[in-house]
Amino acid sequence: MDTPKSKKIELIIPAYRMHTQGFMNVLDGISEEDGLKRIENKTNHIVWMAGNFVNMRYGLGWVLGLQEQDPNNDLFFQGKALDENIKYPSLADLKKNFHEISPKVYQKLCEITDEELDEIFEIGMNIPFVKETKLNFAGMCIGREDYLCGQIGLMRRILNYPGMNYDVDENLNY
Fold it and tell me: How many CA atoms lie less than 13 Å away from 85 in the CB half-sphere?
């Protein structure tokens, strides 16, 4: 693992890297057709979940100072509700976007300082025990990625795919 400048971010980096692995593993083998299936018209489909996951990476990058814009931001920003009348990107396109932004965000995570992480980043949650800082936003992004990966994992099983494996691809160094 690369050594980050910030001691505070050392907690985030292993989770970030495991989520990179998990994202690829949970989508492994899912067909484009199954990626658009919903359960009893009540759930989001896997494509929406994967798109929101990728959007979280872009959002974290933006907060850390990257000027990269998610090409599908209008579909997924702030967990925008699924719209069945919209044509969503393919899983292949989402994976491509994921691999374009993720190493850049990882590099920013390694370069950011404690002082920068302590900077206020207001997201309007108005929760008394959550200080709205860049560090806490990074933690919330990790939490969201956990949630989405679990949701996709559940959809895998519902759609009769085997459970997600936990193999590690050492070539994914972000």
Answer: 0
Q: Residues in the chain, how many?
A: 174
User: 136 near 130, Cβ under 8 Å?
Assistant: yes
Cβ-contact 19, 143 below 8 angstroms = no
Round to whole Å and give the CA distance between 41 and 45. 9
Q: pTM for the complete prediction? A: 0.95
Q: In the structure encoding, which two tokens stand for residue 106, read together?
A: 């990882």
- Tens of pLDDT along 18-72? 999 999 999 999 999 999 999 999 999 999 999 999 999 999 999 999 999 999 9
Distance CA 22, CA 43 (A): 21
Tokens representing residue 129 in the block? 């025990």
- DSSP assignment of 65-104: T-----TTHHHHGGGPPP-TTSPPPPHHHHHHHHHHHHHH
The set of residues, in sequence order, having a beta carbon less than 8 Å from that of 161 and lying 6+ positions away, is 29, 30, 34
Could you tell me if 16 and 7 are in contact, meaning their C-beta atoms sit under 8 angstroms apart?
Answer: no
Contact between residue 23 and residue 166 where contact means Cβ atoms under 8 Å apart: no
